[in-house]
UniProtKB/TrEMBL annotation:
InterPro entries attached to this UniProt entry: Ankyrin_rpt (IPR002110), Ankyrin_rpt-contain_sf (IPR036770), Formyl_transf_N (IPR002376), Formyl_transf_N_sf (IPR036477)
Protein name: Methionyl-tRNA formyltransferase
Positions of transmembrane segments: none
Record-annotated Formyl transferase N-terminal domain positions: 68-159
Family annotation (Pfam families): Ank_2 (PF12796), Formyl_trans_N (PF00551)
Gene3D superfamilies with a match to the protein in the record: 3.40.50.12230, Ankyrin repeat-containing domain
Lineage: superkingdom: Bacteria
Coiled coil: none
Keyword Heme part of the UniProt annotation: no
Renumbered ranges of ANK repeats: 299-331
SMART domains reported in the protein's UniProt record: ANK
Keyword line: ANK repeat, Transferase
Amino acid sequence: MLVLAGKNNIAVNVLDYLLENYNDNFVVVCNQTDGGHHGWQRSLKKTALDKGVREISLEEAYEQASVFLSLEFDKIVRPEKFKKARAYNIHFSLLPKYKGMYTSIWPLLNSEISSGVTLHEIDSGIDTGPIIEQREFSITKHDRARDLYEKYLTTSFELIKERLNDIITGNLSVTTQAKDYSTYYSKQSLDFSKLEVDLNQTAFFIAKQIYSFSFREYQLPLIKGETIVEAEILDARSTVKPGTILDKQADFYDLATIDFDIRLYFDRIDRINEFSTCTADQASRLLKGLCGVNDRNKNGWSPIIIAAYHGNIDVVKFLLDRGANINDCNNNGTSVLMYAKDFSIQSGNKELFEFLVSNGADLSHKDFSGKQLIDYLSEKEKKFLSVK
């Protein structure tokens, strides 16, 4: 029996994949913090309950499992306690680097240019088990902590799908982790109750701190009484004490640093709906009040979702050029293309819909109710949009 242990979208996505492609010989172990309701990420407990998948305890898993797969699981797993299981984990880093906690933050603070995920065996240490496979991805200069986390989720799911048969059968080869370049960060390595941006630093590193701590669902940097979401390093050299406010406007202030002045933009998530009708130039300015192009409000609406729903094709194109996710979706799994579909049907103009499809929008995407775009279309609408 396969036991899937963990939380959030990564665990739910794997559960959905198991339900679609494998028999029913699997169960789940949920995190203690899983309250059984969906939020900005889906609940494994609720999904399992809704789909008739049995939930067991970790102690029961020790007795019953033949394969144990940990995906953001919150308990310490003791491999020696399994009666017969092979135990595996997905860790969000390229081990042996970044063992432990906060793998969406420390690589950014350390100015890494890449990260990745590691599928490894669980042993008695902390992320020290033999490596089965790794997948690397680039970290861009625009990535925030939340962006990095999303890359971990996407890359992990692709890796698991490709290796799930091998995980189930045990047809795996492993490599012992290297001794060199091994690093570890404990839960105490960051204290979010006392999180402060060090202003006695270079402009580059101040900006790096802002990006590293930008994860709207958890925290945003607070500097001199303002919530900061964006940083722009100016050409002017700083000539006064680092941290001094040089100029304050409605949406930003300029600070002195160790080397160059820096402009820090205030959080303006309340203006996100303006992407519905703004121009590309206005969108560029609006983005400075957000945590990047893929930021979203409490409903899970990002700039590209709002622009697509209102048929603002020029802004959709601008946002894609700035790195927006063409397959972004809200908290219910409704995709950009699904929103564009609504606009196209209501307006009779399918230019945006066709543009998105031709540029890689996923027609087969399923929302969290399990429906694809085609399931929401009448025969007349299918013909209009040329969807089969």
